[in-house]
Amino acid sequence: MSTVYIDSLDTFCQKYFLDRGIPLSPQDRLLIKPRKTNIDSEIFENLMLYDSVNFKVYGENIPLAYLTTALGVKGIERLIERKSLSFTLWTPNIMMGIDNIDGLIPIMHGRVNSPAHSDPEESITIGLNFISDKLSRKQIKNLTHKIRDSYLIPKEGLESDAAAVALSAYKKNKFKLLGFDTTGLDIYNLNKEQKTKLLNCATTCLEYKFLISQNFISHTNKKLNLLFADSFNSISQNTVRDYYSKITTIENFPDLFSLAKELKDPLKDVAFLRDKKNIKKFRKWITETMEKSDLQEITKLYIDEIQNAKGFFETKKGKVSKSLFMWSVGAGLGSFIGPEGAIIGGAIGASISPLTNVGLDMLDEYMISQMIKGWTPRMLFDELRSLEKNDK
User: Fold this and answer.
1) 162 backbone dihedrals φ, ψ, rounded to 5°
2) Would the pTM count as exceeding 0.70?
């Protein structure tokens, strides 16, 4: 199962919904609408492309309140029941020492342990209270019971491992990729600005270590992607989204992120839309294709899949079934074509009536052909074009 990790929703919720006594800047107020549109588009894209989506949560699960408002309680329950939605309660932390002390590396680590930051049930209950259209106590209790088992907490010791990785990366100047050139810098004598940069880089290492431990995918955090692209990464650089983007150019269709921006309410029915047969099959196909082919090959593989598709009726077993099916259709038509067919009925009626043969030809042309056709990944785009058309 492919799981994508999203931290941007928590960042958005922390900024706009949690009162920390710091007023929003004029720029943050101005950008709230386009940022929300981007968040919704990102969620839509990931729910459509990946088997499962994991959201980072720091303390109160405000992302859950956001998702419940957007998807509805039934949508959330559907995703949870299908193991398509989970949360990571973020407890590990990397910190920096304020004062420079000879022989003491400034990188430190620890864990938050307040109830909201370490207890899934507290995190869920407090988070759900952020919903403006308040849920009943019974609804909150039921949701809490269903969601708590979908929580992950980073394993103990992850923060100390990340601190060690950060120190190693610092010494090898790996953080230059993230905009922090450590050439010639004495780690025991960094100024405030340099420590801030080191803190940000070390925190990125912490998330990097976590993603590796869970085999999660991330393509929303640019800093993580830079680390993934480096030589010491152990996570595939190419994601489902990369493969999908290649295919959209063939189909001359917008990617899912862009499509979501065109829809009036992209998240309203996405929990149900993602479970449609053609969309589920596409997720399975593209995941399996990724495992056995290179990104540069996806265009050819996609076209081959469409051209060489075989339906059930084209298999050895299916050909027998098709003959029996055609016979039964003829039998059915024979009983409706007129007095002779009605009296004689069944297959005999079908054999003596010229109208029956015409009927069979039409069925072959317009109905049975659809059953004969095998599934192809292009059927995803049929679904999406229908969605786009019906939304207008």
Assistant:
1) -65, -40
2) yes
